[in-house]
Specification:
1103 residues, alpha/beta, Ubiquitin-like (UB roll), Alpha-Beta Plaits, Rossmann fold, 6 domains, six-stranded parallel sheet, 39 helices, 38 strands, 36% helix, flavoprotein, oxidoreductase, NADP, FAD
Length: 1103
């Protein structure tokens, strides 16, 4: 379905479902991006693709879907400024890293530069240079999200000792030269100087990619040019790796037939991909015996060069220097394997060869006429398709056909395994007379891992694995592509080579006369003793301390979390700590691992309308859809939520039920924890932890401080006078405050009129987030008590996987305590533990008494009368924690959600909010309401919540039933202003408002009656819950006016909008609307419910 959008004043056609970025790209419109890559899920980390939509909201083009008639701006000064500021957080070097992507962005925005906690790293295959890194996160996401390896998840990973398999996918997606193949050009140049006889071999997929480095279309066949360039460099011989592929097929097919005959070592896995071999040896050493012992094609050619080839040409092995031109950086790792050392001298990637062509001053366009040398230079079509996922299997099947049937393959085709560009598994049963071979092809290491860990792999006889999705055509050493999908052009060319060779009667390895001659003159026969000695190898586990620990953890209980705000993540880490395991998002778990590890502890929060968080939905869906028997699994579920909402801990309850339905056994009963209580449910959580440890036979848990922030001193003091904004927030100006309740009324409600930045707009019914601050004098007192320097500047390093963070990368101590640590909120148990770690004996005793889980009432009483500032001042006398510990343990200020209480049609440059004062316990007042009420507060940080931005203007022609309580009236005022100042027509509208006192709320009630007088609303009903004459709740008022409600509700186009407190009032409203359909519409209960469900009902709930 087509839609139309306006970009910088011009109309463009787009497709429904496209993101804004995709629309831009489809029309060739440039917009800067760094973290985005079409092969990765969008994340909006870099913030460079920021645009303004519909004149107001800033969004990220990579994540925001385009919609019909959307107006998109990329060129206004404030959009460019936001993009520049985003880029500033990425760069921190005097010169930006040289790369086409970066140069294009710098040219577009002209910025500065990142904080890089990661250190220089180097393996046989990959080199990391932190001075070039811009922290875009692409490498982390492709390793974790696409490959499911996660070798870069740690803040400062060391590739040599972790799960890294040297595939180089991180290089292929890096926008700078931070990640590169470990260079191998220098040894080749030394060999040239030493007059060595250099023998180069050329892999199938580089001949269809190298030309791209010189402007050729993707997939252009340039074999002759590569050979000609090699000759000009002084390389003596150029051979074809496809010849080695033919030999590999002969040996591998022979090996497979032998294993089938003996029924041993099955399934047999291919071993020509060294990254896959690394994965097996590091993560699944139990499968080393299943790997084919046949060497990879280029290693076979390498061995033959120094034996068969050298003998034929009467060359000394010591005079020969062998080089492989490969699409894969892990080939560099392969040649350094202990079992293969000496077989090969150097491996270069397609990119390195392109650099050599340029360094030698060779004119690419003039190259022509290069030919392979004849010995080890001829190949079949089957050898060509080794470069594509599924090609090894197809080539093996072609040769096996002749072995098992004794007949030539003729016109028979085996194309079942073609077309694998993503992470997929393709399977087929291939019949050779009476023999049936079950075969599988895994395109991508993630697909292989899923197959292995499901244990379904055991039903196959032969399994091909290529670690890079799509195979070598998309390898880590190939020229970088804008998207992996474009590699299909390389695959097509390889299939064309295969087709041509078939026409030349070279369909299988058996048709290659040079291979036949090799066995006749040198190797005797396939699988001979000599062939095994030269062309086969063996595998063994690669052990490091880190990998050993990872494997140990895989036998420990599972601790999985589903988290939306970071609370479940933090609590899961605590549980993982005392169980001696590592917690992880539930989406990273497989059902097989659940059975293997036998014990699982889940901590899951509830989001939205009783939904599971995103990072556990995949696991839940897989579990729901499976028939797996979990009768041997023990489990415990801890649910997190707020009792203020109807769906309190629903996600946790559902998970508990699903586990029970699959026959899993409870360790301890499900526990719902209310995180909206004074202590955020922490006392109940600790009691649950104690019960869990008792049930598991573990000692009582020792819960410490989870360090999620690391602060390092910074000499850049520019932020002292020019503080960075809270992440993703804009600065706005309060222009007016007006009371909506009687003066000195116990619970004030007031209205703010706020000046927005130029060019920003909003829609009626929108939601704003306000980022409040502590009183400056309170922050000053706390800093003084702690003995910190208020002007000390720190760099902030965050464990982003665990924390919803708003602190920018550089802050001063004064800014940290004024703007980000919640000094007016109640202290939590983690903060008390941070002080207990450094306290003297007297302090330890006091804090231990407060933290005693058997004294919950005492702790809650303490919380009623104290805020965090007072708590810090009280316990700092016993010892002061490290700043990292304090920032990690102290609750942070979180944005407050407010409905917009105005319509843009009245005054487009201003926005209004309705705020009520709040009090907690005996002494504490609400942070945000107190902040906004303060006359000294003039500049505030705000942002529109685009994802919850209902456009009430679209509902204006239909009947409306409006219900509000307390400060929820803000949303309703927005609608009423729209109806008052906008052109009609309007549907009929009635309003029910619930407040405490008619007298106390008189100014606000008068304003609502004024809306009625002006025709914006037809009827206004006010219910006052604390009036002595007529004590009434808003539900009571609605029941009194059921006939008025039905007058509107009988129209299916009628909208019901509620704005106010959550809780049972929402259930009551639903019951009332169903009742009136029964009473006035003569509907049965089910019909009345269905009639309700068919209406447009909008809930705006505020705590």
């Amino acid at each position: 379905m087509s839609i139309h959008v306006t970009i910088n004043g011009q109309s463009y056609k787009a497709e429904q479902g496209q993101t804004i970025l995709q629309v831009f790209q489809s029309h060739g419109i440039f917009i800067p991006t760094l973290c985005h890559h079409p092969d990765l899920p969008p994340c909006g980390k870099c913030g460079l693709c920021v645009v303004r939509i519909d004149g107001g909201t800033f969004v990220y083009a990579c994540m925001q879907p385009a919609r019909n008639k959307m107006i998109i701006d990329t060129k206004s000064a404030d959009v460019i400024e936001k993009a520049k500021k985003s880029l500033e957080s990425f760069f921190n070097v005097s010169q930006p890293p040289p790369s086409p992507e970066i140069e294009e962005i710098v040219k577009y925005l002209n910025p500065k530069n990142p904080v890089r906690p990661r250190e220089h790293d180097r393996t046989n295959a990959i080199t990391f240079d932190p001075t070039e890194c811009i922290n875009c996160g692409r490498c982390i996401r492709i390793c974790s999200d696409i490959l499911n390896i996660g070798a870069l998840n740690e803040p400062n990973p060391r590739m040599r000792i972790n799960e890294c398999i040297s595939c180089g996918m991180c290089i292929s997606i890096c926008p700078t030269n931070s990640l590169q193949e470990t260079p191998s050009i220098a040894p080749i140049l030394r060999a040239l100087v030493q007059n060595k006889i250099i023998v180069l071999q050329l892999a199938p997929s580089v001949r269809v990619s190298v030309g791209e480095l010189f402007g050729e279309p993707i997939g252009t066949l340039c074999t002759e040019k590569i050979i000609a360039a090699a000759r000009q460099m002084g390389i003596s011989y150029v051979l074809d790796t496809q010849y080695g592929a033919d030999v590999t097929i002969v040996e591998e097919a022979t090996e497979l037939v032998e294993r089938l005959k003996n029924k041993k070592g099955l399934p047999m896995f291919t071993s020509c991909c060294p990254s896959w071999v690394n994965f097996v040896e590091r993560s699944h050493p139990e499968l080393t015996g299943n790997l084919s012992t046949t060497k990879s094609p280029h290693m076979i050619v390498g061995k033959l060069i120094k034996t068969y080839f050298a003998d034929r040409l009467r060359l000394k092995e010591t005079d020969i220097f062998t080089v492989s031109l490969m699409p894969c950086v892990s080939k560099k790792d392969e040649v350094k394997r202990m079992q293969l050392i000496g077989d090969f001298d150097a491996v270069i990637t397609a990119r390195e060869f392109g650099k050599m062509v340029k360094d030698f001053g060779i004119e690419w366009t003039s190259l022509k006429g290069g030919e392979f040398d004849h010995i080890l230079g001829n190949s079949s079509g089957a050898g060509a398709i080794f470069g594509v996922s599924g090609g090894v299997t197809e080539a093996t099947v072609r040769y096996a056909h002749e072995i098992l049937t004794g007949k030539k393959i003729g016109e028979i085709e085996y194309h079942q395994f073609r077309g694998n560009l993503g992470s997929v598994v393709k399977t087929a049963d291939i019949s050779f007379g009476d023999t049936v071979i079950k075969m599988a092809v895994c395109s991508g290491i993630s697909a292989a891992r899923d197959l292995i860990e499901s244990e379904n792999y055991k039903k196959y006889h032969f399994i091909e694995v290529m670690s890079c999705p799509g195979g070598c055509i998309a390898g880590g050493g190939q020229p970088k592509l804008p998207s992996r999908e474009l590699a299909i052009n390389r695959a097509k060319t390889l299939y064309d080579i295969d087709k041509n060779q078939i026409q030349n009667k070279l369909k299988t390895a058996a048709d290659n006369t040079e291979v036949t001659a090799l066995y006749k003159l040198f190797l005797e026969k396939p699988g001979s003793h000599k062939a095994h000695n030269l062309l086969h190898t063996h595998y063994e586990p690669q052990e490091t301390a880190m990998l050993a620990n990872i494997k140990r953890l895989q036998t420990q209980p599972i601790v999985g979390f589903g988290s939306s705000t970071g609370t479940a993540t933090r609590l899961a880490r605590i549980v993982g700590g005392f169980i001696k395991t590592v917690s992880g998002a539930m989406n990273s778990l497989t059902l097989t691992s659940l059975i293997k590890r036998k014990t699982a502890i889940f901590i899951v929060s509830t989001t939205g309308d009783g939904e599971f968080p995103t990072n556990c939905k995949k696991f839940i869906e897989n579990l729901r859809e499976s028939n797996i028997d979990l009768s041997e699994v023990r489990y415990a579920v801890c649910g997190l939520g707020s009792r203020a909402y109807n769906q309190f801990c629903l996600a946790g309850k559902q998970l508990d039920l699903i586990m029970e339905e699959h026959h899993a056994k409870q360790i301890i009963p499900f526990i719902p924890i209310d995180t909206s209580t004074e202590d955020r449910g922490e006392t109940l959580f600790e009691r649950w932890c104690l019960d869990l440890c008792t049930a598991l036979g573990l000692p009582p848990p020792r819960i410490g401080v989870n360090l999620m922030y690391r602060l390092t001193p910074d000499n850049d003091d520019s932020v002292i006078n020019n503080p960075l904004r809270p992440l993703k927030f804009e600065k706005m100006t309060i222009k007016n405050r007006s009371l909506l309740t009687a003066k000195n009324y116990m619970k004030e409600i007031f209205k703010l009129d706020i000046k927005m930045p130029a060019g920003m707009s909003y829609k009626p019914g929108g939601i704003f987030l306000i980022f409040p601050q502590n009183p400056p004098e309170m922050a000053k007192e706390v800093i003084q008590v702690l003995g910190y320097d208020p002007n000390q500047v720190f760099q902030i390093h965050v464990d982003a996987a665990s924390v919803v963070n708003f602190i920018p990368e550089r802050v001063s101590i004064e800014q940290l305590f004024t703007m980000y640590l919640d000094l007016k909120g109640p202290p939590n148990r983690s903060l008390l533990r941070a002080f207990m770690r450094v306290a003297n004996n007297e302090g330890i005793e006091k804090i231990q008494n407060l933290l005693d889980i058997n004294n919950e009432n005492g702790f809650n009483e303490y919380l009623k009368d104290i805020d965090i500032a007072t708590c810090i001042k009280q316990f700092a006398q016993y010892g002061v924690p490290q700043i990292d510990s304090l920032v990690s343990s102290c609750p942070h200020i979180i944005p407050r959600k407010y409905s917009i209480a105005s319509a843009p049609i009245k005054n487009r440059g201003f926005i209004s909010l309705v705020v009520s004062t709040l009090q907690f316990g005996n002494n504490r007042v609400g942070l945000c309401s107190d902040y906004l009420r303060n006359e000294k507060t003039s500049k505030i940080y705000m942002r529109i919540m685009e994802d919850e931005d209902e456009d009430f203007s679209e509902l204006k022609e239909n009947p409306m039933i409006l219900v509000a309580t307390g400060r929820g009236i803000g949303s309703i005022i927005s609608i009423l202003e729209l109806r008052q100042y906008d052109d009609g027509p309007f549907g009929k509208c009635i309003l029910f408002y619930g407040c405490q006192s008619g007298e106390g709320y008189k100014p606000l009630i008068d304003e609502l009656q004024e809306f009625k007088k002006n025709g914006a609303v037809d009827e206004v009903y006010v219910a006052c819950s604390r009036d002595t004459e007529k004590k009434q709740y808003v539900q009571d008022a609605m029941r009194e006016q059921q006939d008025k409600l039905w007058e509107l509700w009988q129209d299916p186009q009628c909208s019901l909008i509620y704005s106010g407190f959550p809780g049972t009032i929402c259930d009551d409203i639903i019951s009332i609307m169903i009742e009136i359909a029964e009473t006035f519409g003569d509907a049965a209960v089910d019909e009345a419910r269905e009639f309700y469900d068919n209406h447009n009902v909008i809930w705006r709930r505020f705590d």
